[in-house]
Amino acid sequence: MLVRAYLFFKREDKMSKRLIAILIAISFTGVGVFIIFNNCAEANCWVRVDAVDSANAIWGSSSTDVFVAGKGAIKHYDGTNWPQFDCVQNTALYSIWGSSNTDVYAVGEHGSIVHFDGSKCQYIDYTVSGDHPSLLNSIWGSSASDVYAVGGRGTILHTADSGLNWSRQISSTTTNITDIWGSSSTDVFAVGDSGTILHYDGSNWSTMYQNDRYQFKSIWGFSKNDVYVGGFAIGSTSYTGVIIHSGC
């Protein structure tokens, strides 16, 4: 049973409008499965590749440079092979992002942050003010020197020195923050439970929107004025998917 999928694509040829797309699908059993689509619409173009256990997230810079985060490890696709790099034992990694193929971060359980430098994946042993985060859900950056990680109890962490040191930023919320995205270093959005949308202007985080009827799980945009938030509405007997668009 498919429970989650991520898709991104790159336009290879504007004249023929061919697309290279990469899809990661996660099965109900928790065993990750990769499916790669390459330049045609035939059924035999889809290739299944064994993945890391519980593949949870995908990030890539091109169709021949793709990273997948799973349980304690990262797999990297170079256009031909999927070598695996062990990062941290028995710890689920839920999100992955990089500024390049030699500067990739993943975050997950127990507030874990790992970094891949192009040849090896290492656990980052960091300290921040207050309690150590118990959960990090998402990571994003505007550059190698401007990276954010968000998670449980309103946690927002930031590094400005390529991951050497991390600091806790004031989010003014204790809700679970599930995802983060920005158009620049002075225009960053984060979303979470209780229908929360936060915004960072380069100096401070503020609450843009909050509605307890919603649980927001993801955010992505094209620009500061064109942002989408996905999640679900909580009903008395059911859950209904919801998408919110900034559009202004």
Care to describe what's here?
By secondary structure, the protein is an all-beta fold. It has a single domain (56-245), classed as YVTN repeat-like/Quinoprotein amine dehydrogenase (Methylamine Dehydrogenase, Chain H, 7 Propeller), CATH 2.130.10.10. 0% of the residues lie in helices and 59% in strands. It is built from no helices and 23 strands. A 4-stranded antiparallel beta sheet has the order 1-2-3-4, with no helix packed on it. Strand 2 (18-27) and strand 3 (31-38) form a beta hairpin. The N and C termini lie far apart (38 Å). Mean pLDDT is 83; it is low at 1-30.
Number of helices: 0
Strand order, biggest sheet? Answer: 1-2-3-4
**Largest beta-sheet characterization:** 4 strands, antiparallel
CATH architecture: 7 Propeller
How many beta-strand elements? Answer: 23
Q: Determine the CATH superfamily.
A: YVTN repeat-like/Quinoprotein amine dehydrogenase
Helix-strand category: mainly beta
Alpha carbon gap, first and last residue: 38 Å
Counting structural domains, the number is 1
Helix content: under 10%
CATH class type: Mainly Beta
